Amino acid sequence: MQKANLRVAKKDDLDAINAVIEAAVMNWHLPDRIKRLALPSYRYSSIDYEHLEILVAETVDTGIVGVAACEMADPNEIPGQQALLLHGLYVRPDVQHQGIGSQLFRAIETLVHKHKCDGLLVKAQTDAVGFFEFHGMQRLERLNPESNYAHRFWKSVTLKQ
C-alpha cells in the first residue's frame, strides 16, 4: 500500500495532471481509436481551475501520480439533494491498486462535508464501477438512456454537527 501526499493542485501542475489523465485513459478497456478520440475531452485546461477543485496525489520519488477534481452538481442531477460531483479521479496505471485512488476518494468525501452537500455524485467510466461500489456508492437508475451516463452513482453523507 503506497501512501501519497495530497494537496490542492497549482496551475503549474497542469502538464503533470494531464499526463496522469492520459496514462489512465489509455489504460481503459476500450478500442485505442475510441481512447484517442475521447482523450481531449478528459484533459484539463487552465480555465478548469476556475470551476473545479482539483487535488493531486504525489510521491517523493515519482511526483504527481493521481488527480481528483470535483464541482457542485447541477441541482437537477439529484432532485431534492445538493450534490458534489466527482468530475474525475485518475491514477497512473503503474501505481494503481496501491491505495492512492482511495486516498483521493476520501479527500473528495471531506469536500462533500465542507460544502455542506447531501452526498457525492459520480458518473463513472465502465472500468471504474467496481472502485466506486467498493467505496460504498449506490448505483442510480438510468432514467434517460440518451442523456444520462450509463454508470451513475450516489453516496449520501451524514453531516457532522
| Second-tier CATH architecture | 3-Layer(aba) Sandwich
Task: Give the structural class.
Answer: alpha+beta
Average of the residue pLDDT scores = 92
| Number of discrete domains | 1
- End-to-end separation in angstroms reads 32 Å
| Helix fraction by DSSP (H/I, runs of at least 4) | 25-40%
Tell me the CATH superfamily. Gcn5-related N-acetyltransferase (GNAT)
Strands side by side in the biggest sheet: 1-2-3-4-5-7-6
Which overall shape is indicated by the principal axes computed on the Cα atoms?
Answer: globular
Structural account:
By secondary structure, this protein is α+β, with helices and mostly antiparallel strands. It has a single domain (5-156), classed as Gcn5-related N-acetyltransferase (GNAT) (Aminopeptidase, 3-Layer(aba) Sandwich). It is built from four helices and seven strands; from the N terminus they run E-H-H-E-E-E-H-E-H-E-E. The chain has a seven-stranded mixed β-sheet with strand order 1-2-3-4-5-7-6. Strand 4, helix 3 and strand 5 (119-123) form a beta-alpha-beta unit.
Secondary structure layout plus pairing:
Layout: E1 5-8, H1 14-25, H2 32-42, E2 53-59, E3 63-72, E4 83-91, H3 100-114, E5 119-123, H4 129-134, E6 138-139, E7 152-156
Parallel strand pairs: 4-5
Antiparallel strand pairs: 1-2, 2-3, 3-4, 5-7, 6-7
